[in-house]
Amino acid sequence: MARLLTVIGVLVTILYSVFIYCLISPQLDKLRTLPLNELGDFLAGVFGPLAIFWLILGFLQQGKELQQSTEALELQAKELKNSVEQQKGLVNATKEQITEIRRASIRPNLEIYLQSNIASMQFMDLHLENTGSGTAKNGSSRFRGVTTTYSVKHIRINVGLRHQAKYAEINALYHKCHSNVF
User: Fold this and answer.
1) b/e string for 9-22 if b means 16 or more Cβ within 10 A?
2) Residues paired with 74 in a beta bridge
3) Which residues fall within 8 angstroms of residue 116, CB to CB, at 6 or more apart?
4) Is the pTM of this model over 0.70?
5) C-alpha distances in angstroms, 29 versus 23, 62, 139?
6) Which structural domain, as residue segments, surrounds residue 84?
7) 117 and 61 housed in the same domain
């Protein structure tokens, strides 16, 4: 649009100059003999409309550029807002990852199973194994009033045959404990 206004301005100026030249060319001798103040008045009268025309063209061109600048700023503001929203999403995702990493580092992973005791047929071995990582390797558990600390990955507890029925209860306790940890 700015180029179009400039081209229109140049064409009108050329046409206006040719028109003025055609009007005053027969009286060029009188123009040369005019006193300076009258010559200045004449030139101001001839080029005044042309100056006003260029002033109007400049105003129109500046208005178009200002409109384009405003649109560009609005687009930048919209992109900045989108960028802020994306950054918020990244921060939330990072926080969730950090929380999950923290939970995983302290979450025990207990495996419980019964095995026949080699020493006696009246006893079964209850194996409790923590395969968790990090700080989850150290902890304690309670079975029927007996506290066992498991700082190693494997614990062996002898359970009599009469207590084998309690295995289901212990197993249920394990699943409850495992599902309630974070």
Assistant:
1) beeeeeeeeeeeee
2) none
3) 124, 125
4) no
5) 13, 41, 115
6) 2-23+36-102
7) no
Which residues have a Cβ under 8 Å from the Cβ of 54 and sit 6 or more positions away? Answer: 9, 13
Do 98 and 118 fall within a single domain? Answer: no
Q: What are phi and psi of 181, to 5 degrees?
A: -75, 110
Q: How many residues does the chain have?
A: 182
What does the angle CA 115 – CA 118 – CA 123 come to, to the nearest 5 degrees?
Answer: 60
> Is residue 178 within a helix (H) or strand (E), and if so which, with residue range?
helix 166-180
What does the pLDDT profile of the chain (182 residues) look like in tens digits? 778 888 999 999 999 999 999 988 888 888 888 899 998 999 999 999 999 999 999 999 999 899 999 999 999 999 999 999 999 999 999 999 998 888 777 777 777 777 776 766 666 667 767 676 655 555 555 444 444 443 333 444 444 444 544 555 665 655 555 554 44
35's tokens: 């006193």
Is residue 29, in this structure, part of any structural domain at all?
Answer: no
Token code pair at residue 68: 């384009």
Among residues 77, 102, 127, the one where a domain terminates is 102
